[in-house]
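User: Sequence in, structure out. Go.
Assistant: Echoing your sequence, followed by the structure tokens.
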Amino acid sequence: MFYRIAADALVVVHGLWLVFVVLGALLALRWPKVLWGHAPAVAWGALIEFAGWVCPLTPWENRLRRLGGETGYSGAFIERYVTAIVYPEGLTREIQIGLGVGVLVLNAGLYWWVWRHRRTRS
């Protein structure tokens, strides 16, 4: 039972990490120093997508599931949980590259917006 709960908790952490990678720049409106941790997170998220790698949290979740008597799954976290919702036909290399570009473009825009917002407040 412990391993199943741990695997489910890891899914929550993984999902929160994904939200942080995509939208974490918005936290800089309140806490500007968060950008020092967010920028590397964005780089890591984009690199995972561009290289076609699997995030290290995914095999860890699968291992916990197997230890808990469940079966793991093949593929990546995004393919299993996000793509199933957004792209039901499966994750392709083009979609992965698009996700990587999207993360970079979105966060560049958010960083610009945060910078302008903070500059006008000063």
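User: And one key feature?
Assistant: DSSP finds five helices and no strands in the chain.
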